[in-house]
## 1
Amino acid sequence: MENTLRTQLQSAIRSIPDYPKKGVIFRDVTTLFGDADAFSRSVDALVEPFVDKGITQVAGIEARGFILGGAMAHRLSSGFVPVRKPGKLPRDTISVSYELEYGEDRLELHKDAVEPGQKVLLVDDLIATGGTAEAAIKLLRQLNADIVAACFIIDLPDLGGADLVKSFGIPVQTLIEFEGD
Amino acid sequence: MENTLRTQLQSAIRSIPDYPKKGVIFRDVTTLFGDADAFSRSVDALVEPFVDKGITQVAGIEARGFILGGAMAHRLSSGFVPVRKPGKLPRDTISVSYELEYGEDRLELHKDAVEPGQKVLLVDDLIATGGTAEAAIKLLRQLNADIVAACFIIDLPDLGGADLVKSFGIPVQTLIEFEGD
């Protein structure tokens, strides 16, 4: 079953060599999202350990984490909280910077998005170095959220992001790994 | 029931006066998305007419349409197709410009996102003048998609967007109207 899902996801994810630059293989999940069965099974597999765990919000990272996170929140009958790029949220926000290969970027969260102690699942399509996930964790912890786990379809283990998230004491759930990326 | 949902949505949506500029009331759906019951009922109400209608893809407009559309696609056991801002999709795209109050913007769609004749639901959180919806319709029709309907939580009827979408022969489903916006 596990292996069947992995095989299905491996063929549903489109690998694009030398994108966005030479030597990088981009893992394109739009083909997975567009495949009804692969999308449905991915969402179900990501939420499965957390059904009946009292999750109050799924926090999705802009933008592909919104697609997955919206589906997961509906499946769990929880709320959805957007973790957004700068300047996109209309009310008072908190903000955390993170490093990019060149320069830095920022993520923002509404100050009233989560109440202290609420049980939050963090989600994005892919974890690489973990920089954005780390920023999202810092934001949610500033609001004293209880981050139950972080969920990603794809893990690029060579880049260490999953280990970084675990170092914050947060369990990581992923569905497929691509090594050598 | 209808009125109960409307009343619930009216209180779940946060209205922000003079945002993003003086005289405009911004309708903030992040509070609705964060409210588990309001989010769940909104998704269920939007998909309800289309269950068993053979929808193959839900096309969501970046970025809030991703949250709703991901949930709707999962609920309908369909695929999800992102209609994105420029430069975000990794493979060959088609592109349509639309007018903003000052200047213009563009939406893009992967060329292979939809096959001819596939039944697509278009979704965004809100319809105002309908400029982005029109651009998304043009993109989907370039791929010969069968756009079954366009769904929005919020309609601002004074701005005419729903009528514009209907003028393309596409039914419009909305859950709540704010007049005078």
Note: Chain A is about 35% helix and 30% strand.
## 2
Amino acid sequence: MRIVAALGGNALLHRGERPDAAVQEANIERVATALAALAHDHELVITHGNGPQVGLLALESAADRSLTAPYPLDLLGAQTEGMIGSLLARTLHNALPGHPIAALVTHTVVRADDPAFDRPTKFVGQVYPRESAELLARRNGWHIAKDGTDWRRVVPSPAPERIVETDTIHELLSGGTLVICAGGGGIPVTADRDTGALTGVEAVIDKDLTAALLAEDLKADFLLILTDVPNVYEGYGTPAQRPVIDATPAQLRGGDFPEGSMGPKAEAAARFVERTGGLAAIGALDAAYEIVHGRSGTLVRPDLTAA
Amino acid sequence: MRIVAALGGNALLHRGERPDAAVQEANIERVATALAALAHDHELVITHGNGPQVGLLALESAADRSLTAPYPLDLLGAQTEGMIGSLLARTLHNALPGHPIAALVTHTVVRADDPAFDRPTKFVGQVYPRESAELLARRNGWHIAKDGTDWRRVVPSPAPERIVETDTIHELLSGGTLVICAGGGGIPVTADRDTGALTGVEAVIDKDLTAALLAEDLKADFLLILTDVPNVYEGYGTPAQRPVIDATPAQLRGGDFPEGSMGPKAEAAARFVERTGGLAAIGALDAAYEIVHGRSGTLVRPDLTAA
């Protein structure tokens, strides 16, 4: 089976944790444990978020007085692909001795006229109390929005249209290599309509939507979206809350999700299943193996009763 | 012909230039122009330095008060592989429409007991007047050394022993992909003697020595070391200065090089030619095509008179 697994940016850095290198190095051991068993039995592509990491680098770059201007988000996103790609590659190398592993710098084409450029929605960096967030926003020209009870920087998140390195990923995967790619949804670029020339843009693409596109392009059998909750829930946060064990794309889309990150995950899973007839699931990182074997998570399956 | 080309970190950021993203984006156009013609006719692997870039990120990380400790050099090196890899990949993509291009996050194994860990020699970051450098050294726990007339941070530069991703690079190259890899000499890791487990270490490997190892492992025909001078010189800086047009490894090693970066370049070229019987050359980035065709640079060729 060919599996595309998407890891939340929080897999490396949990909400509220200090963004130290040592913290992320410790957290990533859990990722390797969870995913190594899958790599034994299946073709595996791993993609990952970068929200906390790209936000940290953006702050550091904005504070660097040797620069005329902070580095743009495409280059900072590229930096996170290198760093997180290296952490994942070396940890999986240690968990899977002898297994070929490649972390690929990956670019994702978006539309220059995507309306998301005028409406920033993607959370990056740390959470702050409202007043700190407002101060940082004024100082750095940020947009901010409420994330749970705290505030956080938001940046444009245009829709992924095409992954530039798909053929390379396919070639490596077909040759038996575990591929780590499209981190942070891929480095955002626009493509010139006439020449195809790529240009970096200030954005962070949603990694779950890129994972769905990647899974479709690679003709994957399974899209596995890993997060820090074991299921999608009905009536989340109410007394009637109960886990969804399985759902069709339409049922999943009909769910009433809390603000934040479950919406894009549900949309990504639904889209992949509708377009390909494959399976998707949303569940907990630690349960990755159990989810693929139908013993955990929320399974999203094709609607066989549909016309 | 199979060519490994090594770009100086200065190709993206010249000495004294402000380390802005825009400056590096402009400089990299020159790289693409110089290398695209080679990629038309030959199998091409590109590796690059990261001294100015990793030094900048180290300063930013050291100044980040949200961190318990600055990020280690292996993770900062990984960040530069992502960023420079992306800049090279997208610029070459635009110069070579339709040509498959992959930038790979690459790890290089060094010995934990390499004496270089006790003797930092590799320049990173910007140059400073002596007093500024001494102040920064005290504040950040740096080692510093004289670079030309200025001062600069130095970090350990252990010898490259093995490139972890060699098989993947070989597979991509043999399939017709232009591969960008081993940036900054590769992300430095040690390998546990018993388990082979990889662990990041605080170092920056010499990218020319890694390029020579890579060229040897890939059975390349030509190692092309690109820098900002058109040749190796005899009597450099003296009235008798004259360019070396060609040399055997022994002749090249006998040269009296000024302090700084020509020494490792000469050693890398000599080592590749001795070990493989292939050709190497040292010359100017803009003359890459002419160097490969014998019309520029210093050619290093096997000593056919040797026993």
Note: Residues 156 and 284 of chain B are 27 Å apart (CA to CA).
